[in-house]
Each structure stands twice: as structure tokens, then as C-alpha cells.
Amino acid sequence: MNGYPNGYSNGYPNGNNSYPNGNNSYPNGNNNSGGNSAKKSGGAGRIIFFIALTLVILALIIGAVAVGCMYLFKSAMTAYWNYMERNGSETAAEAGQQQTDQSPAQTVDIGAVVLPEVNLSAAHSSSEMSIAETVKIVKDSVVEITTEIKSSGGFSRQYVISGAGSGVIISETGLVITNNHVIDGASRITVRLTNGNEFEAMLIGTDEENDIAVLSFAPGGEKLTAAKNGNSDILETGQQIIVIGNPLGELGGTVTSGIISCTAREIQVEDVGTMTLLQTDAAVNPGNSGGGMFNLYGELIGIVNAKSSGTSVEGLGFAIPVNTAWKIASELINYGYVRGRASLDLSYVDFSSFEAMYYFKRSNMPAGVYIFESNEKLGVSFGDRIISINETEITSSADISAFLKKCSVGDTVKLTVMRSGKTVTVSIKLVEKKPAASN
């Protein structure tokens, strides 16, 4: 009886393990399989419903955010390009490849200046010296160059970006040769001598194709040491040389030594194209650009302009042969540009597909070189895409530059453009490339 009164067994009446109907079931006579099962089924349905509803709501939210972001992005880009159209000087399109690019730095006309001729004989101006003796003679001809570039930011803010490089004095009157990429875009240029004295410099001229620029500063009563030029055509592989410059933009007067590893190495230089350069194993670092490479006769034989980059690359430095640099410098000093170069006399720019579509407000525009300014006389229109010159495929402005190097002023070429889905071919007589007039 388990201690329960009135004959209860295990706590249930009637002395068995059942409800009053005498079986092991609920009053409806089944094993709890009806009402409870319906409750479970209804609960699962509600869970599924709420999960589905949640997913739908999330999908709607995500879709709304995506559409909003796309709308804002499109609005921002449209506003950006509209701004560029009103303020064209800020865009690469309007500065880019107009055949007359120039640095914002102030230019100055110094009149005709005759540089000493490059020493084309095999004879040297002195006997070969030790590295230490050579450094004593040439070190004061190498200067540090610092630049300031004004850059516009958001909300009409302007920022000043500082840069640094090196240069070589080529005249006691204050002429300095350096690389174009050292001073490109600079609004202010400062030259610092080895004695620490600083002078503001003006831009005489620049040549992007050979990465050469010439500066001028007024030395006052300062006695300057001008470099003596050598003959880069008679250099030999294995010949010992030194490099002097301003590595990292803060170590002016640094001297490294090495040998000529190759006298005529063709390499691709960023933003310039193919150049034939002197190769050396002397240490070259950022800031050395524009500095001097000297032989042990105390003669300038090259203008340092590049280093092969990469975490595992060492002992690969390059310099513009002085025979090339000197010729370009003479042209810039006396004429302000390099004479005799052919030009299409067109304004064109490299655009990605995205840039082209936004700028020209058209759809399905591929990447390529686009005419930026119409020229009715030549038969080209704003938005034309250049596809070939004399049947030579053109995909970038670098292709045009490479083609024009093989041409002469006065040559006539066939220029083919894509306009509104159709090809149009026009004949253009090449003219001499000249810089734009200074503002």
C-alpha cells in the first residue's frame, strides 16, 4: 500500500497506476498524443514563421542600405566630376599629356648661358685619385634639394607635402642640374650647400622624357664649386666610381662607392618609360635622385635617377649618362625646352573605364587614351578614344610617346579614333613640341 490511505497505490486512486478510467492514459483514452502534439506543432510553426520574418526584414534592411550607398556614391562621384569640370587644374586629365606640361614652380629666364662642352676626348683633366682625394674635390658641387608641394584636401583645405632629393652645381653662377621627378609639381624649391647655407631656387626648364631639370639660384657672395664634366661614352664596365647625394632626404653629402656594372642598361623607369642608363652597385637610396656619379678623375659622369626596388634587391642603382644629361641641360638653359621633338599638338589623357564613363557622361566606355579638348582643325572631338597611329595600336599615352620618338617634326601620320561606336581616321602633320607659356 506504500503508506497511502484508502487503498491508493503509488499515489493514484483505484489502487493502480492509472487515471480513473483504469488505463495508463489521459482522460480522453490516448497516450498524450493528441493535444500536446498539436501544441508542439503549433510552437514549431511559430518559430519558423518568426525566423522567416526576421530574414525578410534583414534582407530589406540590407537592400535599402546597399541602394542608399550606391545612390550616395553616385551622387558623390557626380559632384566630384562636376567640380573637376569647373576647376580643371586639379585633374590629371587637364594637366595630363597636353604636350606642354610644366611644374607649378616659378620659372625664370636667365638669358643665353653657354655650358662647358662635354669632354669627348679620352684624356682626363687630372690623374686618377683615391676615393678620399676625389671626394675632397667634388663634394661641394653636390647640393641637397627640398621641395614643397601644395595639395588640396576635403572641405577646401590645403596641405603642404615636403620632398627631398639631390642636385649638382654645373655653373658658378648658380645653375643646378637634378631630376625632373625631384621637383615635379613643386611650388617652392630650396637648395642647401654643404656649408649649410640655403637659397630659394627657380625652375629654368624640365624634360620629363629624360628626367632632367635645371634650377637657378642667386648665390650672392657665395663662392660655388661647379662640377667638371667627364665623358660617359668612354666608361668601362668594372671602372670604379663614387656616388654623392642626400639619401633619405636627411643625410646630405653621403658618399658611397662601387663600380660601373653596365655602361648602357635599358630599363623601364616609372612615369618616364624606357631609358638607357649607367648601372652601378654603389648604394643608392631615396633622396639620392639628382645627385652626382663621379669617376676617380674628379669628373661628373652621371646624374643618379633610379634604384631597382624590392625587399630582396640590393646593388642595383642607375644614373643618366652625363653626355645625355648635359645635352638636355644645355637645351633647357638656352631655349626652355628640348628642340626638335615631334608632337600631335593634341590634349589627351589616360582614363580607366570608370573615369571615362563619369567624365564624359556616357556608358560602356573602355579604358584608353581620350581626346580631352576638341580640335576642329585637326578633325578630333572631345571624348574621342585614340585607338591607333599609322596602324600602331595605342592603349596608353606612353604608347603615343614611344611612337613619337621615332618621328620628326613635319611628318604626317594617320590618327584613328573611336567616336560614337564608329572609327574615324584623320591626317595630322606633326609639329614641334613646346612648353606652355608661364603663367
Characteristic key phrases:
439 residues, six-stranded antiparallel β-barrel, Thrombin, subunit H, alpha+beta, 22% helix, disordered N terminus, Pdz3 Domain, 31% strand
Structure classification? alpha+beta
Order of secondary-structure elements: HHHEEEHEEEEEEEEEEHEEHEEEHEEE
What percentage of the residues does DSSP assign to strands (E)?
A: 25-35%
Distance between the termini: 117 Å
Query: What is the number of helical segments per DSSP (H or I, 4+ residues)?
Result: 7
Number of domains: 3
CATH top-level class of the largest domain: Mainly Beta
Low-confidence stretches: 1-35, 81-106
Q: Write down the CATH topology of the largest domain.
A: Thrombin, subunit H
Number of strands: 21
Q: What is the helix content?
A: 10-25%
Task: Specify Rg, calculated over alpha carbons.
Answer: 38 Å
Please summarize the sheet with the most strands: 6 strands, antiparallel, barrel
CATH A-level architecture of the largest domain = Beta Barrel
Query: In one word, what is the shape?
Result: globular
Q: Reading side by side through the largest sheet, how are the strands ordered?
A: 1-2-3-6-5-4
Mean pLDDT: 80
